Every structure is written in C-alpha cells, then in structure tokens.
Amino acid sequence: MTVRRRRAFRRPFRGALAAVAACALAAATAQEPVAVADLPPNALIPDLRVLPPSDLHLVGDDAAGGALRLKFATVIWNAGEGPIEVHGPAPEGDAGDGGGGAPQGAAAGAAEGDAEHGHGPDDALPDRTAGRTADRPETDSFVARQVVHDADGGRHDLGEVGVLNYEHRHGHLHLASFARYELWSLEADEPVALVAENDKIGFCLMDNLMVDEELAARDDPWYFACDQSVQGISPGWGDLYVAELLEQDLVLTGVPDGRYRLVNVADPDDALFGADPAVAWASVDLVLEGTTVRAVEGSERVGSDAARR
Ligand SMILES: [Zn+2]
Fold first, then answer.
1. I need a labelling partner for 247 at 20 to 30 A (CA). Which of 28, 33, 94, 131 fits?
2. Looking at the 3D structure of the chain, how many domains does it have?
C-alpha cells in the first residue's frame, strides 16, 4: 500500500462537475429511505478502514489549565467499492432532498487548491446554514442522511444516520461522532484499562489523502470542498486529520508514565452503513515518560475480523 499525501489539486474537470451537479439536483426528488436489505445487487458498498495514528507528540495546553495533551494524526479511509456519502441541508432555494449527489462545493466553485482541514474563517465556505432553521434547534444540528451509489449511477437514500453540527471555528458542518480516540493501559501486551478517551470527534468528510491507488476510481479527489450539503470519502481515498487540528488529542491528566495503546475507532456508534467499528479501527503502542512520548516501532495494528484491539 502506498500512502501519498496531496496538498494541492488541479481540477480541469470542474466545468463538467458543475454540469453533472446541476443535472443531479434538478433530477432529485424526495423519496422514502431504503432499507439496507433492499439495496439493489449492483449497490457499491463502502468499507471504512483506519490507519494507525502517527505523528505522536505532547503539548501543554494553557487553555486546559496547563494539562498535558497527546497529539496525533489520524486517517480514516474507504476500502470499499463505493463512496461513503452523507447529505446535510440542501442548498438555499432547493426544495429537493439533494439525493442526486455531486458535492455542492464543486458546483458552487469552491476555493482552488484547498483540501486541508482546519481552514480559518477567512477562507471558509459560505455558511449555507446561516438564517436557516436547524432540523434539531435544541442542538443547532442538521440531520445527516447516508446515500449509497450503485454501478448504474443510481442513488439510494438510507435515511438518517446522525447529525451534522456547524463548527464555527472551521466554517463548515461536521458529522458528529465520526471517530473515537482511546488510550489503554497494557499488561502483557493486552489492553486492560481505558485511561483516556475523546469520543465526540466530529469530521467534515473529504478526500485529501490517496491511500490505495488501485482502489481509487479517480486520480483526483471527488469530495474536496468540505461541503455542507454532500460530504464523503471515495474508494481508495482517505480523510487525513493532522495532529495540529483542534480535538486531535487526548488529555493526559493523571496518566502515569508507562506503555499504552492509542486506538482510533471510526463510526464508534455503528451508525453508518459500510463502517463497522469492529474492523474500522487502528492502533499504535506508545511509551510515555515525563513530558516525552515515543511510538513503539512495529506495534501498529489495524482492525480485522480476527484482530483484537
Ligand atoms: Zn472541520
């Protein structure tokens, strides 16, 4: 497997994308959600996987009263045949459900060359949720629905799979509870106690890291705009969250020196189709000593039916 990081993208196909998106939106009609069991045989099933956390380091955080934090980078990627795709609020003025499914950012002409997470308010996309009534006003959340593609261009709405929250610091919607970070103490190489966790990790799903070129149908990212209406991860592509991002960490208050296992679990609530938390996880062991941390060489594990965390 080759992992190739991409920072900037050229999109000569943008005009074509816009045309496709316009067609898809015009054709979109409200429809009843489809049960997974009723998906057609040609449905393209996603399969989320996780790469072991990397770039481990410690920072002191004054905002948290000087607490020591373990920072790290994570990648959640799609090893399936079709994209994992969620739909949020439809663009203003569009009464349809957006079931057609090209990323709206493509049609709207998203900022060139920026498929990194964590951009500031200056280069954020326009907030399409501004002035609109949230589906869940008590939490300012919008309903997220999962849409499965099929091999003949069909789209199948599986209905609600969670909520999207507006992340003001990033300027876009995040799919809530897309990942959970855990730190386990070890005894004889087995995890025995959870010593730290961060279970409210929201993500804007996007293609920003080519993980498996053979699986990737496209050489360019399809979901690149951190879009508010349609987000996703394409086959062969991953969603890299670098260590510097907000909440890419665990607070180590009260955690003594020793050897631990850092685990990233995707879709921990098992809400998404094609994202089984029993296999969509990865881990790396680390040694904590005072204000230093080091990853244990060769200790990386990735989820499988047989493996244990
Ligand atoms: Zn974000």
1. 131
2. 1
Residue at 147 is within a domain = yes
Question: How far, in Å, from the CA of 173 to the mean position of ligand 1?
Answer: 7
What pTM, to 2 d.p., does this model score? 0.80
Cα separation, 62 vs 69, in Å, equals 10
pLDDT digits (tens, 9 = 90+) for 116-156: 564 333 344 555 565 666 777 666 789 999 999 999 999 99
Cα distance between residue 74 and residue 70, in whole Å = 13
User: Does any domain span residue 208?
Assistant: yes
The number of beta carbons lying within 10 Å of the beta carbon of residue 204 is 23
Contact between 270 and 292 under an 8 Å Cβ cutoff? The reply is: no
DSSP state of 44: -
Q: Give the Å distance between the CA of 71 and the centre of ligand 1.
A: 17
For residue 244, the CA-to-ligand 1 centroid distance in Å is 12
d(CA 81, CA 65): 46
Nearest to 85 by CA among 223, 281, 276, 239: 223
Does 124 fall in a domain? no
Residues 6+ apart with CB under 8 A from 255: 183, 195, 196, 288
For residue 230, how far is its CA from the centre of ligand 1 (angstroms)? 14
**Letter for the amino acid at 231?**
Q
What span, in angstroms and rounded, lies between the C-alpha atoms of 143 and 87?
8
Q: Is the pLDDT of residue 237 over 70?
A: yes
Task: State what percent of residues in the chain have pLDDT above 70.
Answer: 72
255: domain range? 4-31+44-114+140-302
